[in-house]
Write a structure and sequence with these properties.
76% helix, rod-shaped, mainly alpha
Length: 97
């Protein structure tokens, strides 16, 4: 019985000794994977910030372009439009049948 116990004990020690380098290698692989993912996250966060700033500028431009004073100026100067007087307004009523 003693030789079997010795063999089992030696196998346990051998497995333990082999598991340490294997775990270190696994840790190294996971560390590399983490660094790649972290780099990708940083890149995506930078892109997100740029897109947010671009979106803010576009929203501001939309506000400027759609302002009523700008539209009125374009209508008067470029399209030769004017505000309708009361005698120029025609009302149409549609009656149900």
């Amino acid at each position: 019985m003693k030789p079997v116990k010795n063999i089992l004990k030696n196998i346990e020690i051998l497995l333990l000794a082999l598991s340490i380098p294997a775990l270190l290698a696994l840790d190294s692989v996971e560390s590399q994977r983490y660094n790649k993912l972290n780099s990708k996250v940083n890149s995506l966060e930078k892109t997100e910030g740029e897109l947010i700033e671009s979106n803010k500028r576009l929203i501001n431009d939309i506000g400027l372009l759609s302002s009523s004073s700008r539209i009125e100026k374009l209508a008067q100067e470029d399209l030769n439009m004017h505000k309708a007087s009361s005698n120029e307004i025609v009302r149409i009523e549609i009656k149900d049948k």
